[in-house]
Design brief:
By secondary structure, this protein is mostly helical. It has 6 helices and 2 strands; from the N terminus they run H-H-H-H-E-E-H-H. The protein has a two-stranded antiparallel sheet. Helix 1 crosses helix 2 and helix 2 packs across helix 4. The N and C termini lie close together (10 Å).
Length: 109
């Protein structure tokens, strides 16, 4: 499943709204020929509606950690991150956490 508005309906209840917005924004900007984009954390935070203040435990940092926890981001340790631009189908466990109206129509792997 490609990350589209349809996929956002299924991701938001699992990842959370902030993580879904950031994942959506980054995947939209990683299209050929721009297979690499660079952001300052304050710019990314502002672009995604999280304000300009970025602290070590702030919303953006926690959100990026959440995206990494779910396997959509890999932090290389050198200040660079790799982000998935294709979102796989949800697992049965994740689908079970969705509201019932989404469980009925959710594609699963």
């Amino acid at each position: 499943m490609h990350l589209t508005n349809n996929a956002d309906n299924f991701l938001a209840p699992v990842l959370g709204p902030s993580a879904t917005i950031i994942l959506h924004h980054l995947s939209r900007n990683l299209r050929p020929p721009a297979l690499e984009v660079t952001y300052q954390l304050t710019d990314l935070s502002h672009l995604c509606g999280m304000g300009l203040a970025v602290r070590g435990t702030g919303l953006l940092i926690r959100t990026l950690a959440r995206i990494e926890h779910f396997g959509f981001l890999h932090h290389g340790g050198d200040g660079r991150c790799e982000i998935r631009s294709q979102v796989p189908l949800l697992s049965h466990r994740h689908v079970a956490q969705l509201p019932i109206e989404l469980q009925i129509i959710a594609p699963v792997r």
